[in-house]
Amino acid sequence: MNFGVDSASGPTAARALVAAYQLQAVTESERSVAAETLRFIDANPDCLWRTCQSGHLTGSAWIVNPSRRRTLLTLHRKLGKWLQLGGHADGESDLSVVAMRETREESGLEAVHLVSADLFDLDCHWIPERKGDAGHHHYDFRFWVEADDRAPLIMSDESHQLAWVDLDDVHRLNPEPSLLRLVQKIRERSGG
């Protein structure tokens, strides 16, 4: 299924990222999400497209400032939650490209740096039914991105608000384990 987007490798590249992540996973929960994602990719060759109705792959960016003490979050318009920036693959087989595209589109930031092309985190979450779209899963490929927190932000129509948030305050905006895990990981990798 090719809709004009460069998806020559299909989900092969995404599968390789998940397999590498699974080998380096620290917790049983991480290994479990990786195994679930691999099963999903293998069962759904169209997983890079939103038309895959049971779920699809998404790419998001855990954006931190150079001191790694603040992160950029969006108050997501459709979900009404503070989240990291990200979006649908729409056929793009390189999910880090998706994460970087969504970073630029949703924040207006141009000077962004992908710290690593390896997965920083992997999450599977349920998206409830909304305006005729059936409920489905997002298999979210999360990448570590760095940006200057002094650069001007331009909010897209996908957000109610954008804000640089101290890592210590993320739990006040969104106490979900998925987001708190990102805070913990950045602290561990930053030595603090």
Overview in brief:
The protein is an alpha+beta fold. The chain has helices at residues 12-24, 28-43, 95-107, 170-173, 177-190, and strands spanning 55-64, 70-76, 82-83, 85-88, 112-114, 121-127, 136-147, 159-166. It is globular and about 45 Å long.
What this model shows, in words?
With 192 residues, the protein is an alpha+beta fold. The protein has one domain: Nucleoside Triphosphate Pyrophosphohydrolase. Helices cover 31% and strands 28% of the residues. Strands 1, 4, 5, 6 and 7 form a 5-stranded mixed β-sheet that branches. A 3-stranded antiparallel β-sheet has the order 3-2-8, with no helix packed on it. A hairpin with an 8-residue loop joins strand 6 and strand 7. Helix 1 packs antiparallel against helix 2. The longest helix has 16 residues. The N and C termini lie far apart (45 Å). The N terminus is likely disordered.
Itemize the secondary structure elements and their pairings:
Elements: H1 12-24, H2 28-43, E1 55-64, E2 70-76, E3 82-83, E4 85-88, H3 95-107, E5 112-114, E6 121-127, E7 136-147, E8 159-166, H4 170-173, H5 177-190
Parallel strand pairs: 1-7
Antiparallel strand pairs: 1-4, 2-3, 2-8, 5-7, 6-7
Helix pairs in contact: 1-2
